[in-house]
Design goal:
By secondary structure, the protein is mostly helical. Helix content is 79%, strand content 0%. Helix 1 runs parallel beside helix 3 and helix 3 runs antiparallel to helix 4.
Amino acid sequence: MKDIITPSITRLHDLLDYDARKFTNAEIQLKNSLPGWINTANSVKLKEVLLKYKDYVDEHIEKLDEFFIAEEINSLSTKNRVMHALIEEMGEKLNNCTDKEVKDACLLAGIQDINHFKISSYGTAAAFAKTLNMEKAADIFHGAEVNEKQIDERLSQLAKFEVNKKARSPISLPE
């Protein structure tokens, strides 16, 4: 996707709008990648968490559209190179994993990388919106941050109690 020419960022409000455009692209990239990752997951619980995450991503896209309407911003997104790189890195790692339990650990860790990036991004946007007295926007971004933290907690518990333990000593069956 080609970057859109955007006006100069001269105010905090401009920066918030610019970042929101990037969020949309990030969420769309993630939405397009999640179905393949869900199919790749071996763990039923990991699949369930990723399905819930897909629901959150859909919700984030919808809420971002509300933000754009309120801000009277053309909702065309700006390419999010960080998300693109994280998704590419995930694909490279997954292609190199030959054991299904190790692949689940790889997938979970990659999703958490993405998740941590989004927690930081949405948290910063919420702080910007709050500073600008944009309460509805602050609520949208804070809500997305909370969703990301919930998924992160689920993934951490799943890693600790199932996925990483299985990956530590995978059972390799002869082909």
